[in-house]
Structure formats: C-alpha cells, structure tokens
Amino acid sequence: MQHTLSFLPSLESPTHCRYAVQTVRLSRRKSWRSVAACSELMAGQTCNLTLVFKDPFESYLARVKAYTSSQTSNWTQSAHFQPLTDTVFGPPGLTVSGCGNCLLLHLTVPASGGLKQQLQLRDLYRSLEFQVKRTRDGAQTGVEYCVSVRVSGLLTSTSSLFSQPHCAFTSPPSPLDKSVLLVLGLTGALCALCLFLSGLVIYRGGRSFRRCSLLSALVCQ
C-alpha cells in the first residue's frame, strides 16, 4: 500500500513559501516527528508517507505548516488515518475477451508498488469484492461490449475508481451463419428488383393501353 499526503496552499501564502510535514502515532502519542523527506516542500508537491504509515492497524495524524525565512504559519492537522480501513484502492487490472455469446473477464487486484507491498495488500485484503459496469445487458454473438470494474475490500469503507472501459467483441458468427445471411440478403435483393421491374412493366403497359383507347375514339368521331 502507498500513502501520499497532499495539501492546498493558502491563497495568501507567498510563492516562495516552503512547507514541512510532521506525523504522530496515536497509540504512542509522545511527540510529533518531522518527515525528513518532506521538510522543504513547494506548493503542489506531495509527501510520501508509505514508510511512516507502515503499521496497517495503527492510527496516525499528519500536519503541515508553511514557512519563509521570516514567518511561520500555524499547523494544519489532518483527520485520523488508519491504513487498513482508510486506504483507497487504485482501479483494478482488467482484460476482456469473447467466448461465443459471452464475455470472459480477467481481473487482478490493483498494483501497489514493490513486491513487499503487493504481498502486504494480498495478506490484508484476502477477500475483495468486484463491481462490474457494462454498456448493455445480455450477450449476442458478434457484438461489441464495453466493461468497467471497480474493487472494494470488506474491511474498507470506500471503493476504488472504476477502471477505464475495456471493449471486446463476442466471438464472430460461424461461417455457416455468414453464408446463410449472405444468401438471404441476395434473395431479398433479387425479390425487390423483380418487384420493381414488374411494377415498371405494368405502369408502362397501362399508359400504352390508355393512349390507344384515346386514338380509337378520335378516329370514330
């Protein structure tokens, strides 16, 4: 698991301000400790507290202050943070493939730093719940579907963000189905052409018959 502290500078803070971070463990609340790597931060930078918040069952506090060569602000304190319950997952890994009239989803837990952190994540969250969001229900052969997934641990109160949509076609129609569709399409086109030609012949024949009748009437008069 990775833990990062971010903060928003005050609108009144000068641009040359620096920022310092301190933390404390609530079970051993003796004194605040400075984070050496986060003692001269600039606006927009973050503080990596992964090594500081290494006990997932512990509760921690963090605080930040701004300072210049001549001024120092008051400390701004964070809310309580417990890695086990307050960690927010990154989106899970997802691949999608077709299987006839269905889709196969291959899901992986969110990546988390190095091997040690991945093993810790696996040990702490032995049971994960995946939620799937899809573009449509049902699955038809030869149709494209898009799927997004997010994950939550049974011990956490928050869920991860949804992954980016991954799209895949179910397996394409079999060659036999394609042949049948092609024959049906050609048959329909030929029928439509025959109807059009028949209508054209009948229309022209009617006009010729009417013209002959008019000419006969004129001759009789």
UniProtKB/TrEMBL annotation:
<dbReference type="GO" id="GO:0004896">
    <property type="term" value="F:cytokine receptor activity"/>
</dbReference>
<dbReference type="InterPro" id="IPR050650">
    <property type="entry name" value="Type-II_Cytokine-TF_Rcpt"/>
</dbReference>
<feature type="transmembrane region" description="Helical">
    <location>
        <begin position="180"/>
        <end position="203"/>
    </location>
</feature>
<protein>
    <submittedName>
        <fullName>Interferon alpha/beta receptor 2-like isoform X6</fullName>
    </submittedName>
</protein>
<dbReference type="InterPro" id="IPR003961">
    <property type="entry name" value="FN3_dom"/>
</dbReference>
<feature type="domain" description="Fibronectin type-III">
    <location>
        <begin position="1"/>
        <end position="75"/>
    </location>
</feature>
<dbReference type="InterPro" id="IPR013783">
    <property type="entry name" value="Ig-like_fold"/>
</dbReference>
<dbReference type="GO" id="GO:0005886">
    <property type="term" value="C:plasma membrane"/>
</dbReference>
<keyword id="KW-0675">Receptor</keyword>
<keyword id="KW-0472">Membrane</keyword>
<keyword id="KW-1133">Transmembrane helix</keyword>
<keyword id="KW-0812">Transmembrane</keyword>
<dbReference type="Pfam" id="PF01108">
    <property type="entry name" value="Tissue_fac"/>
</dbReference>
<dbReference type="InterPro" id="IPR036116">
    <property type="entry name" value="FN3_sf"/>
</dbReference>
